[in-house]
Amino acid sequence: MRTQGSLLRFVWYIALVIIVILALAPLIWMISTSLKPETQITTTEIRWIPETITLENFQAVLDHHAMLRWTMNSLIVAVTATALVLVLDSLAGYALARMHFLGRDLLFLLILSMLFVPIQITVVPLFLLFSKMGLTDSHVALIWPVGATVTGVFLMRQFFLSVPTELEDAARVDGANDLRIWWSVVLPLARPALTAVAIITFLSTWNSFFWPLIVTRSDAVRTLPVGIAQFMSLRPGMAQAAQAYGQSMAGAVIAALPPVIVFFVLQRHFIEGISMTGLKG
Amino acid sequence: MPILPRQNPSQGQLNEGKTSSSRSSWRAAPYLFILPYMLFFVIFRLGPSLAGLGIAFTNWAAVGTPKWVGLGNFEAMVRDPLLKDAVLNTILFTALTVPLLIGLGLGLALFMNQPYRGRELGRVAVFTPFVVMSTVVGVLWTWLLEKDFGLINVTFGLDIPWLVSKDYAMLAIVMTTVWWTVGYNMVLFLAGLQDIPRELYEAARIDGAGRFQLLRRITLPLLAPTMFLVLMLTIINTFQVFDQVFVMTSGGPGTSTLTLVQYVYTTAFQFRKFGYGSAVAVLLFAILVLLALIQTRAYRRGLEGVTE
Question: Would you give the distance in Å from CA B96 to the centre of its chain?
C-alpha cells in the first residue's frame, strides 16, 4: 500500500465508510424512527435526527405489551441454560478428552452425528414430551433442550485435548480426586473455552425463535423474540400497518439495544468466541 | 441460528485423546462425568430425533393414536403442490443467498484483514447486525422495505412493493438475511486468514509475486478448509431459514416465500398434522445430509487438486 500512496488509501477509506454506513444505517434508522411522533414517521422526507423527539412510542409499547416480562423471561432462560450447558459440557468434554473409558469414541461419534439432524425433526416429539409432562408453556421446556446441544461438548473436548497434562498429574500426585482436579485445576485453565461456550450458548438461546414459538403460549413464559414477532401481526399493506411502525421500532430498540451494547463492550470476546467455535475447535 | 463447530474427520481426531489416568483399571469417574450430559442428550436430542423419524411414517393428528402408514406421507409429498413450492423456494433462497454470503463475507474479510487504521471499527460494524435477534431484524426490515415510507424506496427513489409482491418478496428476504448474517461469515474468514503464516507472503513477495498472485496462489488455496467450513455452515443455515420469513411474510404473498421450515411449522403446529409435518422435517434432513456428502466429496477432490 505504501508505494501506491495516498490515493489508494483514500479509496480504501471511502470503501470502509460505505461499508460501515450500510451495516449500521438500518439500526440508526430504527432508533430514529422509534423517537419520532407518528405524524413524522409516515413521511417521504428522510430525517435521521427527528424534528421532535418523543418517548411516546416506548411508553405505548411498555403499556400495551408485556415487553419487560418477555425480557425477564429471555434473561431467565438464557442465563439458566448457559449455566446448565457450562456444567454439563465441561464435565462431558473433559471426560471425552482426558479420560479413558469403554465406548468413548463411539459415544463421541454419536454426539457429533446429531450435528446433521435439524431440530425441526425433534420438535414434534419434544412438544409431545413436554405436553405429557404438563410442562408446555414453561421455562423448563425452553431451558432443558438447550442442555443437549452438541457444539459446547465438542468445543470443550477440543480445548481439553490441547491443554498439557502436567498440572493434572501434579494434582493427582498430591492426592486430588477427579472432581477436585476438574474444579480447581482444569476449569480455571479452560476459561477461554468456557467464555466462548457461554457466549455462543447465551446468544443462540437469547435469539432462539422456532422452539419458543411452538412451546410458549402465555406472556408469563413467552420470550422476547416471540413477543417481538407479535408486533408484526399487522401485515404490511394493511390499513393500520403504518401506524404501528413507531411502536414496532420502539419495541425493536428495546430488544436490540442491550445485546448490541454488551457486544460493543465485549466485542473482542464475542468475535474471538465466534471464530473459535467456527474454526479453532 | 445454529452454530456448528469445525469438524474435520480426515485428521483422525477421534484417537487423539490422551489419558492421564491409568488405562487398565475400570473407573467410574469417566461415566459419572459424562452421565449428566448424556441424560439430557438422550432425552432431548437423540430420543426426539429417532421419535421424529418414526412419527414421519405415521398419520397422527394432535388427538388420537398414531397410525402407521409406511411411506404414505412421502408418497403424499410427491403430489403436494405446496411442498413443491416450499422446496423450490428454499432452493431459490439458498441459491441467491449463499453466493452473496460467501462472496461478500470473503471480500469483507480480505478488506478488513489489511493493515490500516479503522479496520477494527469496520469489523465491529459489519458484525453488529448479527447480534440483533432475528425477529427484531424482521420487524426492522419490514419497516425499511415499506412501499411508501420505507427508507430503501425513499432513499433510492423506488416504488417497489417489496413484501406484498410475489416478484420481490423473496428478494427482500434475501437482502435482509445477507445484511443480518454476512458479518458472521466475515469473522470466520478473518480467523482463517489469520491462520495463514506471514512468512509465506514474504517469501512469495521476494520471489516477485504481485498482490493478485498472492491472493490466487497463497491466500485462496490455504483458505480452502475455512471456505469449506463456511460453505457448509452457510448452506445448512440457509436451508433452515425461518425466523425472518415468519415475521416478514409468513410464507406469502401466495406461496412465494414459503420455505421448508415454515411448512414444517404450518403443517405440524397449525394444521396439527404431526405425521406429515415430521415427514417434511425428515425430507429437510435428507437434503442436508445429501448436500453434506456432495460438499465433502467436492472438498476432497479440491484438496487433491491443491496438493498436486
Answer: 13
Mean pLDDT by 10 residues, chain B (308 residues): 42 43 68 96 97 94 83 95 97 97 97 86 93 94 92 94 94 97 94 90 88 89 90 93 93 93 95 95 95 88 68
Closest Cβ opposite residue B4 in set A100, A115, A252: A115
Joined together, the cell numbers standing for residue A242 give: 403504518
Return the H-helix or E-strand segment holding B78. Answer: helix B72-78
- The phi, psi pair for B54, rounded to 5°, reads -65, -45
Residue A178's nearest CA partner among B18, B37, B31 is: B31
| A164 close to B (CB below 8 A) | no
| A259 C-beta neighbours (distance < 10 Å), count | 20
Q: Which residue has the cell 408485556?
A: A66
ipTM of the complex: 0.89
Q: What is the pTM of this model?
A: 0.89
Contacts of A19 in chain B (CB under 8 A): 108, 111, 122, 125-126
| CB proximity under 8 Å: A 24-53 to B | 24-27, 29-30, 33, 41-44, 46
Q: What is the pLDDT of residues A239-262, one digit of tens each?
A: 444 457 888 899 999 999 888 888
User: Chain B: nearest CA to A154, how far in angstroms?
Assistant: 7
**Window 252-281 of A, Cβ < 8 Å to B:** 252, 255-256, 259-260, 263-264, 267, 270-271, 274-281
